[in-house]
């Protein structure tokens, strides 16, 4: 049992480093950049509060687990914003390989049974094929949108994001997992972009 606990706490101590990874997105009030630990917590809260937007049969417990784990690989890889000048790296073969190596290392800190279980949840989220993962991915995309709206444009302004880019890069994923939610959010994004025209 001592060895198992040592491995579990080694993982937990490593996971604390997620709080040091700064994201491109600011807090909703625009006062500073959000860190990935805060983002993961906020997404878990999104899942609890917006559970009524999930498709029938989606397990919010599994969604919560995915969202808490989904960005742990950023400890090694960092945040790769989809709208940045380096946005092409988001989802590229190089980034996917780097994230897989990070997952090997980070989940490998755990006892084998637990590491395999958590790694499988992370992989399911990344694949975004199961209903649980599709909903989790939708929330992961919508939260930064809301922060950008609340902060008066935030990184959309910095990265010269257009309404068309937002629809293509974000809207399709949100609409796939939470169509009514995207309809509501889209109205706010249109108001923002129309106000800038």
The CATH architecture can be named as Orthogonal Bundle
Q: Which segments are poorly predicted (pLDDT under 50) over 5 or more consecutive residues?
A: none
- Strand line-up across the major sheet: 1-2
Secondary structure: number of strands: 2
Question: What is the typical, i.e. mean, pLDDT?
Answer: 93
Give the CATH class.
Mainly Alpha
- Specify the helix fraction band: 55-70%
Number of helices: 10
Query: Which structural class is indicated by helix and strand composition?
Result: mainly alpha
Number of domains: 1
CATH homology-level superfamily: Hypothetical protein af1432
| Beta-strand share of residues | under 5%
**What is the C-alpha radius of gyration, as a whole number of Å?**
17 Å
CATH topology: Hypothetical protein af1432
Biggest sheet details: 2 strands, antiparallel
- What is the H-and-E element order? HEEHHHHHHHHH
N- to C-terminal separation? 62 Å
The dominant shape is globular
Summary?
One of its GO terms (cellular component) is cytoplasm. Keywords: Hydrolase, Metal-binding. The protein is mainly alpha-helical.
Features:
single chain; 197 residues; mainly alpha; Hypothetical protein af1432; two-stranded antiparallel ribbon; 10 helices; 2 strands; 66% helix
């Amino acid at each position: 049992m001592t060895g198992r606990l040592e491995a579990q706490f080694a993982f937990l101590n490593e996971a604390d480093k997620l709080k040091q990874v700064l994201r491109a997105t600011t807090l909703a009030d625009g006062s500073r950049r959000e860190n990935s630990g805060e983002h993961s917590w906020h997404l878990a809260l999104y899942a609890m509060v917006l559970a009524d937007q999930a498709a029938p049969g989606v397990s919010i417990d599994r969604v919560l687990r995915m969202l808490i784990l989904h960005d742990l690989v950023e400890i090694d890889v960092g945040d790769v914003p989809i709208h940045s000048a380096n946005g092409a790296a988001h989802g590229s073969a190089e980034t996917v390989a780097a994230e897989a190596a990070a997952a090997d290392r980070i989940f490998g800190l755990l006892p084998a049974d637990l590491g395999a279980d958590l790694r499988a949840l992370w992989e399911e989220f990344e694949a975004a094929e199961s209903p649980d993962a599709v909903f989790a991915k939708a929330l992961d995309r919508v939260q930064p949108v809301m922060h950008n709206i609340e902060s008066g444009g935030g990184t959309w302004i910095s990265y010269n994001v257009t309404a068309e880019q937002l629809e293509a890069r974000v809207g399709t994923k949100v609409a796939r997992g939470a169509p009514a939610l995207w309809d509501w959010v889209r109205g706010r994004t249109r108001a923002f972009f129309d106000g800038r025209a």
